[in-house]
Each structure stands twice: as structure tokens, then as C-alpha cells.
Write the C-alpha cells for this entry.
Amino acid sequence: MSTPPRVRPDTINRLVNSVYPGLALLAGMQLDVFTPLADGPKDAPTLAGEMGVRPELLDTVLYALASSGLLTTEHGRFANTPEADRFLVRGSKSYIGSNHEVFADLWSAALRTADTVRAGAPQAKHDFAAMSPDALRSFFRGLDAAARASARKLRRDFDFAGSRHLLDVGGGSGGIAVDMCRAFPELHATVADLPTVTPITAEFIEEAELGDRIDTLACNVVEEAPVPPPGPCDVAVLRAFVQVLSVEDAASALANVGRALAPGGRIYIMGRMLDDSRLGPPESVAFNFVFINIYDDGRAYTESEHREWLAAAGFRDIERFRIGEGNSIMTAVKG
Ligand SMILES: C[S@@+](CC[C@H](N)C(=O)[O-])C[C@H]1O[C@@H](n2cnc3c(N)ncnc32)[C@H](O)[C@@H]1O
């Protein structure tokens, strides 16, 4: 009689243990340990002294970050890796350390998944129309660095040289508009968002000193076309926007964005997009855990769903590009 193969809890153990390095990163970003290390290697007591915290607690975080590959350690002194230096040091051009506010928000929402499924409704709901100005400010500050990084990605991969008027739809902080206008001096931009959000958007634009080239437009894009003066735009970018809407609202919003684009204008949808199998990319499949906890209907939608909405809205030449971490860019031309 053959013995059945021994089944071990390997997958379970792997999944359980994979959570902690991310939490160490979150703590490192929240404590901003990487910025003081930009001057050079330091031991835990020196760094703790500069930060005003207890060294025996801080060094736990430092060793966890070293074990994950974001710090190195030699003779008890810690140093940033090139990756940490580039992305996690405040003031660096590619700084994304401020994303910790969003990570903490989204990960704590994901912890409510069983409650949400039992209750049949999101238990950590984000209602952009009802959030306080402070909550909106903090949420968008957390997203802003990633929005600007997405704009850099767009600029690297697509040609915007001849573009004149860019519409940043559901733009939040306006990070896409700000980065694009900085890169292209001839470009004008409009950030369209809900009326509760655009006053916060205006603060970010003011801070970027681009008030003369970027306008805001208070508009519910599901209900009306976001056409800014003097008329239709030639580029629309929708980052992390379609995924906050229901199926019906996404179709309606894309039809309205179509109305705000001149014929030949191009739309870029950036964000979480599922393969039609719904099994990948794995990061987007997992991110749907966040969506069901924070939105009534928002989800990562499939490539085919996006294609259908765009075709129905009069777009042609629809193409999808995968850009890593489960994100995609879908682009199309207004017919
Ligand atoms: C997840 S945030 C993304 C913000 C920004 N695009 C970014 O990537 O940082 C979603 C944005 O969509 C906006 N939004 C949601 N529903 C909207 C609607 N019906 N019309 C206009 N904007 C909307 C929200 O106010 C919010 O700014």
C-alpha cells in the first residue's frame, strides 16, 4: 500500500510570513528612518538620538528593513540601499515615502474583509463626496507621489510633445497635471473632480505654483461631461478613477470623458485592471480586497470590460500595456 504524499502547510506559512516585511516598510516610512541615513551609515543609538526614540525599539525595525533589503548593516551601523536612497529619502526627486498614509489606510481597510462580506457592505468606506477636508487632504497627500510617478511613466512611454490641453479626470491632488505641466511648458491642464474635492486640489496646485496653467473643474463625471473652457481637450488621463466606480457609472463616466475630448484626442486609463481570466495580475486580484472594503461598487475591472466601455463611448485603437505591480495603461483614440 503506497503512503499518500505528505501535505505540509507551506502555502499557509508563506502567506502568513509575507505580511511582516511590508509592515516593517510601513513603520520605516512612518518613522522616516531613511532620510537621516542619507548623510551616511549610523548605528541605532545615533539614529534613535536624532529621532528622539528608544534605540532598543528602533533597532528591531532597522534589522527587519535590513533583512528585507532596504537597509544594509555592517559593524552595527545601518545604511540605505540605493533603492531606499532614491525612493524613500525625503526631498529626493523620486520620493514615494509619503505613500505610507495611503498604505496604512488601505491595509487597515483590507483587514475588514470578513466583516464586509458578512455585513454585505463596505466596512471601511471611502465616500469622496462626504469625507472631511482634512481626511481628503491626507488621502490625496498619500496618493500624490504615486500620481506623479505615474505621470513620469506616461511621459517616458508615450508622446505628449504636441499636446495642448490635458484633462486629469478624478485627479485628486492633480499630481498627473502638475508633473505633466512641469515637463511640457506649452501644456495647460484641468483637473476635474467632485465639488467637495476641487478646493483641496486647488491647494496642491497652489503649492506647486502652477495656478496660471492648471485649472480645476468641479464636476460629477458620471453625470456630466467634464468640458473645461475653452472647449474639448486633446488628452485625458484617468488614474485610479474607473476602479472607484460601479460598472454602470464607469460606462457613463467614460462616455462623458469621450464628450470632453476632441476627435483624435487620446485617453489614458491608468490603474488596476484584471486579465479576463480574473486570476491576474496577482497584485490586482489581491487589491480587490481593498476595493470591496472601501467602495460600494468600485473594483478592478477586466480588460474586456474596459474595451467595451471605450468602444461604446466612441473610442478606437484601444490598446492595453502592463506596467508592473498589477497596474496597466489602456489607451485609445476618440473617433
Ligand atoms: C482613488 S482617487 C484617485 C485620485 C488621483 N487620480 C490619483 O491617482 O491620485 C479617485 C478620485 O476620483 C474622484 N471621483 C470619484 N467619483 C467621481 C465622480 N463621480 N466624478 C469626478 N470625480 C470622482 C475622487 O474624488 C478621487 O479624487
Notes: The first strand starts at residue 42 and ends at 43. Residues 49 and 288 are 41 Å apart (CA to CA).
